[in-house]
Amino acid sequence: MINVAINGFGRIGRAVTRLLCEGAEDHGLRLVAVNDPMPIDLAAHLLRHDTTYGPCHSSVDFKTDQLQVAGEKISYFRNPVLQSLDWQRSEPHLLIESSGQYHHSDQLSPVIRGGLKKILTASPIRGKIDATISFGVNHQQLATDMSLVSNASCTTNCLATVLQPLVERWSIVSGTITSIHATTADQNLQDGPHADYRLARSAIQSIVPTKTGATDALGLVMPQLANRFEGWVMRVPTLNVSALEVTLQFVKPASAEEVNETLLAASNQQLTGILSVVDEPLVSVDFLQHPASAIVDLQMTKQTGNLIKLLAWYDNEWGFANRLVDTSCYWGQLQ
Fold first, then answer.
1. Alpha helices in the chain (DSSP H)
2. Which domain holds residue 106?
3. 245-285: per-residue pLDDT in tens?
4. Rounded distance, CA 31 to CA 174, Å?
5. Is the overall model pTM greater than 0.90, yes or no?
6. Which residues are identified as catalytic?
7. Cβ contact 18:289 at 8 Å
8. CATH number of the structural domain spanning residue 95
């Protein structure tokens, strides 16, 4: 059994907790510790009652410094300085960093020097790291001697998952993406301060265009596609589930039918559970709590000349949380 700790008990941290504690599947992971500044009673309340996913299916209780989920006792810390935490009483083998507060490897290196052997970040990270992973695409790169790994982002995982079976069959010259993305915690309910002037505006009133790091991270996951993609995000006023519009330029023409057949085959073979397809006229809410990284909408695939246009849905919280669990399990079990 691999002991796991979570730093950051926000949307992703709580989703991972639910997957580990209330799921029927045995991942070989045990959640032993959580660190977050919020009071423990509030943490328990937000885990019990979730506006997006509904009530937690497991019992949730707490003591002074301990969460109790489905009978499992989880140490709870409120230390804002990660490297000063004493992990001895919980002894995690791996830390999932989901606070979004650490953007450079230099910020996490002291934690590793302090004795935590493996850190998996739930966001892209700059600086010197061992790997950027999209599970199902390049997780075989993971090795026992690695200590700092990024799981990229929900959008990068969606994009790489869609592209993986296509690049095995066709040469891609370039591509563009538009992520129609649900609101996230860094947006404002009403106009207010933000480093990004567009994100400073009310999230519930407008469609908000902003930049994405998914195309840069794609080059780390799939080096053969580095510097070949550009794109942006359109934040929309929904709670969850996003869609990724992908336009691809192939060296030689490929029909929409051929592309769909390739993606369907991959969803039933090497990418089962990670890539999914749908052939119904569905909308975003239909994919709530879907565990796949990408669900390709086959009815939306279009072709003109050497261009292919695709649409892939993704639950930007639940799908990504599933990949964090998958990556933690695979990495932690390596001998």
1. 11-22, 40-48, 105-113, 154-167, 214-221, 256-268, 318-333
2. 2-129
3. 999 999 999 999 999 999 999 999 999 999 999 999 999 99
4. 41
5. yes
6. 154
7. no
8. 3.40.50.720
